[in-house]
Amino acid sequence: MKTYSVKAGEIERRWFVVDAEDQVLGRIASEIARILRGKHKPTYTPHLDTGDHVVVINAEKVRLTGRKADQKTYFRHSGYMGGEKHIPYRRMLETHPERVVELAVKGMLPKNALGRQMRSKLKVYPGTDHPHTAQQPEPLTF
To answer: Would you give the DSSP letter of residue 137?
Structure first.
């Protein structure tokens, strides 16, 4: 018996739309990461990007459990001495709600060129409107 490995030209991509309203951030991010990687397909190949496109709507209505809404911070560094920035979750949700979902999914994807390619198939929007209706995305529920 031979193990079948899909080739780059044989990959079929589908579009899914996810409504993040009243969904827990980590749980929805892990499912989105699984779809972006392609692990839900029988043709999953670890060294190829076999995943599908995911459109997330209502990112501003995602929720956290416990006291994480008060305690969670996002860290970044400018590269200079003392250039640390800690942004609280609540402020990030007010100013850039799409980044909350993007960063959660980013942490669950591979940290290499293949992961960056997978991340480019993620589209996040704070409200219900999105410009990808022409792709006829299928609704995805968890």
So the answer is: P
